[in-house]
Amino acid sequence: MIKPLVRPRRKDPLKRTRLPLSPQRVRSRTAHGLTAAAAEGRFALQVCLDCNTVIYPPRDACPSCLSARLPFRDVPRGGRLIAETTVQTSTEQYFRERTPWRVGTVKLDAGPVVVAHLHGDAVEGERVRLELKLDKSGSAVAMALPEKDTENMADDPHLREMICDPKFRRVLITDGRTTVGQAMAKAFSDAGASIVFVGLANPWKPFPGMESLRTIERVEIVPLDVTDTESVTELAEQNGGRIDIVLNTAEHIRAGGVVDRHGLTIAREEIDVRYLGLLRLAQAFGPILRFRGADGVNSAAAFVNLLSVHALMNWPAYGGYSATEAACLSAAQCMRAELRPGGVKVVNVFFGPLDIEWFQTVPPPKVTPAALANAVVRALQHGLEDVFVGDVAEDIRQRLAVNPKALERELAS
Amino acid sequence: MTVDLMSFARAVANGDIRVIDLTQTLSQEFPTIVLPPELGQCAPFRMEEVSRYDERGPAWYWNNISLGEHTGTHFDAPIHWISGKDLPNNAVDTINVAQFIAPAAVIDCSKECAADSDFALTIPFVEQWEARHGKIEPRSWVLLRTDWSKQTYTDFAGLRDDGAHTPGPEPAVVKWFVEQRDVHGFGTETIGTDFGQGQHLNPPYPAHFYMHGKGRFGLQCLTNLDLLPPKGAVIIAAPLKIKQGSGSPLRVLALVAGGHG
């Protein structure tokens, strides 16, 4: 059984901050099929279309029939841990700092044998479930977990390296004025975050939920306006060193297309709040997050973007909004590359229409703020990078994968 | 009449004429007027550093700023309102520049506003003021001293669940100012020249409707009105020369003879 994580003591301010290191990150193009699965929390291996062999490690030709038709498919993740060993030292700097480190061989029910990192509760000879995780370098690795959940499971130090568990971490929710921001504050408090900073712009402007927001345990309201560079910079200067997860809840949702809108005032606002707001947060908090990627139990862990799924394909009824979300997605991809040296994940959470005022006229299914918040917490607890929340988001993801052109036409009708 | 501008300049320099700044600092935090969120909004003041003696500009510091025509302490031109849209020379770039200098009558209702954030300025209230200080001179600014500029931002904006609550003039008194007193314009410390609840009046937003309909001006978000005498101050309020601008943030100065307040 894993020893429960204890809330880390306050850091000695005179202590040097250890710099983040990365495990080996080189993967073949084919092997990034595993990265894609790990990013979404799926367990996918190559399956030969000609002879049905399940293949690991990734290859360009089937080892049993030489076919080149080897797409990644979700396969059962169960197996047995047939052998284990403990690495006591390593030539890799990253592992050298973290030894002893257990690894083992897992015989999958689906066929192949996989060398995997081992969770502390994975026992030799017993059944395990294999997961694909993104390690600190952002690359997919296999990790064997006990078949059934065990107590304090998420507190395993090796697993915690692969995930961004909010427990004992300090999170910044950038806008507490929205129902989504308030649901996030509640969900992160419930998930054991040690401080939930909640940004508030224009404190002279009252809003529904203000009182209940203040009563959520461990919530600290901080002045923050993502449209004001000085405000963002000041908060990062004051509190950047003790914020481990940044979750951008600033939203700007208005209907209307690109042709069928009158003037640019709304477009400028949405770009200012969403795209430039993201850039301000990235510039203010990115460097300190990256620097603190290995700063103990509550190291910097993640930057979370909430993105409309229509960032992936424009929805003309909300066309201007979709275009801005697409810009945010592009910036988030850049941030991933820039924050990866610190082992900080950029988590993109795609959602369909939300059950909020700005989607009043949109028919269901809609995602409630609480459901979105739970999905974000779960994504961090599992170390995911790309998350699709709700039926509309999942539907768009699937249709996009099959036929983007058809989706473009369908969203226009 | 000969005018001695040099003695005017000397009086300013030696303090016989005091220059009082009636302007709020343009800052990111200062409240901007709030409209329903689906309508177009006035941009708040924002500033992006271009360089600060660094690699973006080695020896110099400067900023790019963005703001609306009605952000911070600002001037309203007649073209701002539908009632003034067809008047000649109704935009900030075409108003006769001589109109940017005018005397002021300062009506103190700060006590009444402290007791009632929906305080309504009425004709009888102004008549009582005139009984003490004399009739408002033609082409004077009427400045409403409410001490609103001394409030916290929360009270300044006065937002409640039914909208903003800030003092303002009743429709009848604005019409009377324009028609009976030929005033130059109407200036306030609050976020607009009208009540916070001005949309419920007839006509809605009467200060805007009547003032701009007769080619008169507005000033809002003023401060330091408590330093002005009831009569005798001269206001310098020159908006930026924005092409067909409906208004403009500006520096508002008051000239006050040395002995006063």
Explain this structure.
Chain A is of the alpha/beta class and 413 residues long. Chain A contains eleven helices and 15 strands. A seven-stranded parallel beta sheet of chain A has the order 11-10-9-12-13-14-15, sandwiched between helices. Chain A has a five-stranded mixed β-barrel with strand order 4-5-6-8-7. The longest helix of chain A is centred in the last third of the chain and has 27 residues, at 265-291. With 261 residues, chain B is of the alpha/beta class. Chain B has one domain: 3-Layer(bba) Sandwich (Glucose Oxidase, domain 1), CATH 3.50.30. Helices cover 19% and strands 28% of the residues of chain B. Chain B contains six helices and 15 strands. In chain B, helix 5 (171-180) packs parallel to helix 6 (206-213). The two termini of chain B are 29 Å apart. At the A-B interface, helix 6 and helix 7 of A face strand 2, helix 4 and strand 8 of B.
User: Could you describe the largest sheet of chain B, including whether it forms a barrel?
Assistant: 9 strands, mixed
- CATH fold group of chain B: Glucose Oxidase, domain 1
Helix content of chain B: 10-25%
- Cα radius of gyration of chain A in angstroms: 22 Å
Approximate strand percentage of chain A: 15-25%
How many strands appear in the DSSP assignment of chain B? 15
The name of the CATH superfamily of the largest domain in chain A reads NAD(P)-binding Rossmann-like Domain
Task: Report the major sheet of chain A.
Answer: 7 strands, parallel
Helix/strand structural class of chain B: alpha/beta
* Fraction of helical residues of chain A: 25-40%
Radius of gyration of chain B: 19 Å
Taking all residues together, what is the mean pLDDT of chain B? 96
Question: Biggest interface pair, residues each?
Answer: A-B, 17 and 20 residues
Average residue pLDDT of chain A: 97
Identify the CATH architecture of the largest domain in chain A.
3-Layer(aba) Sandwich
Number of helices of chain A: 11
